[in-house]
Specification:
With 357 residues, the protein is an alpha/beta fold. The protein has 13 helices and 16 strands. A hairpin with a 5-residue loop joins strand 7 (116-122) and strand 8 (128-133). The longest helix is centred in the middle third of the chain and has 16 residues, at 166-181.
Length: 357
């Protein structure tokens, strides 16, 4: 007999505190950073970078944690599993994710590396370049899992970034098996194209053997199958999992399920400020709608709307009322930006494509 579903989505991922700073392109050149990518750094490198930039916005982050926070803000029942240290940043992370209504019960580590942090450098074109010190988060292992929490979820959501750790891989598989045994679906975010390149074969095995819903952007899905084009990659992933939600920045997203293809346009909610968290909030909107029994087209539309909101602000945690945005859902689909009540306040010149990368 399966456990009762008291939660919509439980996520497993890196528990990270983000520090967002607006910088010029010359800083990226000085530190030989590739714009728009994520680089892993050690604690010494993290401190050197931090000392070279101005004041930043400090907020709890981490890809899966952002998604779970978004689901909670939408009114969903969310839980998160991730490792922090019993330090100041660990306390900040725990406070922030609980404050938005997500359940977070993983005990803080009392020894070992400090809580993870990510320096997010936002350039004037709104692209974000991330330098991540993973710290305590990569120590996640099967012993950190609350399998009772996993069993209570309708969907288990896994963050691809954690696939760099062998212990975390084992935790993923153990959690996926418990989720499946209790009638839950398993969702995976590929997270980063470079992460996919490092683990292509094992990611393919994970998708084929354990994943029901796959989230990937254009670069990630193309890398996963070493495809020559997005269209080729989409053909290859079709049928390997029940649903593949593929985001394409200003071109919106493509949702594949069996022989069906759903195309979703991006939503334009204001000037593009920062793309941090766009993919995370797309997954939040998609999974929240999915757990409410909405169609795949509506799932993609709510995902697109949530992503369109978060890119109009600095930081990955929405500052707008996501429930109010979600209320725009109607039986025939989501209202267009020009129909939505909050569109009237914006002049036509302000609307730009704010797609998901």
């Amino acid at each position: 007999m399966t456990a009762p579903k008291s939660l919509d989505v439980v996520g497993i991922g890196n528990a990270i505190v983000d520090v967002l700073v607006q910088v010029d392109d010359d800083l990226l050149d000085r530190f030989e950073l590739t714009k728009g990518t994520m680089a892993l750094v050690d604690e010494q490198q993290a401190e050197r970078l931090y000392g070279s930039v101005g004041p930043g916005l400090e907020t709890s982050g981490g890809s899966a944690a952002n998604t779970l926070a978004g689901i909670a803000q939408l009114g969903g029942r969310a839980g998160f599993i991730g490792r922090v240290r019993d330090d100041q940043l660990g306390g900040i992370f725990a406070h922030d994710i609980r404050a938005v209504g997500a359940r977070f019960d993983t005990p803080a580590a009392t020894a070992g590396p400090s809580t993870a942090r990510c320096l997010i450098l936002v350039t004037p074109d709104a692209q974000r370049t991330m330098c991540t010190y993973l710290g305590a988060s990569v120590g996640l292992d099967p012993g950190d899992l609350d399998l009772d929490l996993v069993a209570q979820a309708r969907v288990l959501y896994l963050e691809g970034y954690l696939w760099d750790s062998d212990d975390a891989k084992r935790a993923f598989i153990a959690a996926a098996e418990v989720a499946r045994a209790n009638g839950a679906e398993v969702a995976l975010s590929l997270s980063d194209a470079f992460c996919v390149e490092r683990h292509r074969d094992s990611f393919q095995e994970l998708v084929d053997g354990h994943v029901d819903i796959l989230f990937a952007n254009e670069m990630e899905i193309t890398s996963l199958y070493k495809a020559n084009s997005f269209e080729e990659a989409a053909d290859q992933v079709r049928g390997r999992c029940r649903v593949a939600a593929l985001t394409r920045s200003e071109q919106g997203s493509l949702i594949l399920s069996g022989d069906a293809t759903h195309r979703v346009e991006p939503y334009k909610l204001g000037p593009l400020v920062d793309t941090t968290g766009a993919g995370d909030l797309y997954a939040a909107g998609f999974l929240h709608a999915h757990c409410q029994g909405r169609s795949l087209q509506e799932c993609g539309q709510l995902g697109s709307l949530c992503a369109g909101q978060v890119v109009t602000q600095l930081g990955p945690r929405p500052q707008a009322d996501l429930r109010q945005l979600a209320a725009q859902l109607q039986p025939s689909g989501l209202l267009s930006a020009t129909q939505a009540p909050w569109a009237a306040a914006a002049s036509a010149g302000q609307w730009i494509h704010s797609g998901v990368s």
